[in-house]
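Sample intake sheet
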Amino acid sequence: MDNSIDGVLLVDKGQDMTSHDVVAVARRCLGIKKIGHCGTLDPMATGLLILVVGRATKIQDLLMSEDKEYVGTITLGATTNTQDAEGEILEEKEVPDFSDEVVNAAFDEFKGDFYQMPPMVSAIKKDGVPLYKLARQGKTVKRDPRLVYVYSKRIDRIDLPEIDFTVKCSKGFYVRTYAHDIGEKLGCGAHLSKLRRTRSGKFDLSRCVTFEQLKEGKRDEVLQAMLTLPEVSRMRGA
């Protein structure tokens, strides 16, 4: 194992893999054990996953606390037990022919500061046990609402039952819950059907390596793409 590598590696995560899978493959590719990630992406989600390598693990919490930007698709008319397309459908309703104004008004209900109820299928822990493990056992436990912040949102396409959107939000924000709550506001239910993280703090997709590069063990390419700690400091204006 090589313990002389320190830095931040930006990965464009593919679909149907966990954030932990990406870390495991990065460890094999780089031959270094000390790697963590900043902010879990659900298996369904793609896009920016920040890996901290070596001494960069000391700034993991700092990088996790920064604002995020996502692009996604909400599908109206069906609620699921996970609030996204991975879950089982709980209820289906007809989707009225909403005007653009009505859709915009529903999104406008969720901007600035507001409270969000974390989903049962999440990594938040209750008495040391992640909620998603309790959810698998068919249990529902009391969760505390979390104060979140939406800095900006944009509706990119309305082609009912689908709505494409871009949202810039605070840490701890559940885009799945955002989709679910907008569906509730519209009265027909909804779930998140696509999600891609495009930005986190000062980092975007432009310096990312792919999961394939990691998997194929292209160590030199990966090391070349890695941001050094001084670079990260400069980018963040620290």
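Comment: The longest helix spans residues 19-30. The helical segments are 19-30, 60-64, 100-108, 131-136, 175-186, 211-215, 219-225, 229-235.
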